[in-house]
Amino acid sequence: MKFLELMKKKGIVAAHRGARSIAPENTLLSLQKSIGRCDFVEIDAQLSKDGAVVVMHDDTLQRTTDVTEIEVFKNRAPYRVCDFTDDELLMLDYGSWFKQNSGHKEPLLTLRIALEFIKENSMFINIEIKDMSNSFADKIVVRAVAKEIEDAGVHERVLLSSFRHEYLREAKKILFNVPTAALFEGSVQDNLLEYLKDLEVEACHFDDASADEKKVKMLREAGYAVGVYTVNSAKRAKELFAMGVNYIFSDSLDKELKKYAL
């Protein structure tokens, strides 16, 4: 099965940043823990100072690493990911902050390692490319991500998404056979269907508060897959699936969520 086929099914549950309710988000452990708990995993990708594609949600390092405890990094505030080289990021611990991890350290997860894991375990993955337009040109960002996908040979197992829609335009020039999804939070364009057609995306992702039956129906009838983030309630999952939403992104990966798959 290709991702393009998976994403148009109903009742699909995605692991938001991996199994982040039971493991440190965006780590290899969070991917390992998601096996058997979801239909695909979602991770966040951005670039280090020297252009390595690393898996991190925040654009700064304080929340999910021990960067402020490392003596050589004491004067590196605001600790932006893009201000640290790959070698420097490898010095950090990405797991001890997580209470349920009992102080167990986790290494940096790179996109390369994540894609190797997906390939080895026959899984599917949604890569959200974080907006790095203040630090890198769009082409540099997209080409770095594309190279990792091409090197891993996982085109059919990947969905690319971003709030920076320029990345999606660029991705279609390089990875024309990899599906893309436009991310939105809050209001969207009045001419949404025309806009999505121009972007050449296959899917549209909304925040839970912005999802409504009219919008979902319009998108589905136009041939777009619809994803909603972040849904941790089985009751809400049931409502969204009943609307026609194809998949939800969840932190909990509760078995109750899958019970309502249509």
Describe the 3D structure:
With 262 residues, this protein is an alpha/beta fold. It has one domain: TIM Barrel. The chain has an eight-stranded parallel beta barrel with strand order 1-2-4-5-6-7-8-9, surrounded by five helices. α4 packs parallel to α5. The longest helix is centred in the middle third of the chain and has 15 residues. It is globular and about 55 Å long. The mean pLDDT is 95.
Short description:
The chain is of the alpha/beta class. 31% of the residues lie in helices and 17% in strands.
As a whole number of angstroms, the C-alpha radius of gyration is: 18 Å
Uncertain segments: none
Q: Give the strand content.
A: 15-25%
> Counting H and I runs of at least 4 residues, what is the number of helices?
10
Roughly how many Å apart are the termini? Answer: 19 Å
* Oligomerization category of the chains in this entry: single chain
Q: Helix fraction?
A: 25-40%
Number of domains: 1
Succession of helices and strands: HEHEEHHEHEHEHEHEHEH
In CATH terms, the superfamily is Phosphatidylinositol (PI) phosphodiesterase
Q: Mind summarizing the main beta sheet?
A: 8 strands, parallel, barrel
How does the helix and strand content classify structurally? alpha/beta
For the record, the CATH class is Alpha Beta
Assign the CATH architecture: Alpha-Beta Barrel
